[in-house]
């Protein structure tokens, strides 16, 4: 991971690992350092976590959850975006915590009013750090990841997109030479 962060910094993509002023990142305050890993949480911690999710939904309309990976890449996802703003929830794999939260906040801010999500198009303006794609991903592919969303929506319908980004050399997953541990759960083509 350290080697990858160094490569990100070399390309001018600052990986945010230290505590920073979230307003300067355009992030929601509750998204700063929420951790959720049900396997390591006590029943009381799970209850407190679900209360925190509910509070964030009331205050901001959504919540973002970051999960540190043990032997797999970390990931981050939104909950409540679909219900509150009518746009798909978003899933991000293998980016640092604060950067993931920043991208979710940018996604919501950019698309919540127009409702049109450009799928499979290179987006240059979701962040100034790198271009990205949004791809459709079946929630069936995400059931091991999006526990808060599954609990929140229950039997209600909801949708997800996944943010796909380049490696540190600018290569996307289907490019020759692509080298990163991002998990792609939808169908990507650039």
UniProtKB/TrEMBL annotation:
InterPro entries: DUF4262. Pfam families: DUF4262. This is DUF4262 domain-containing protein.
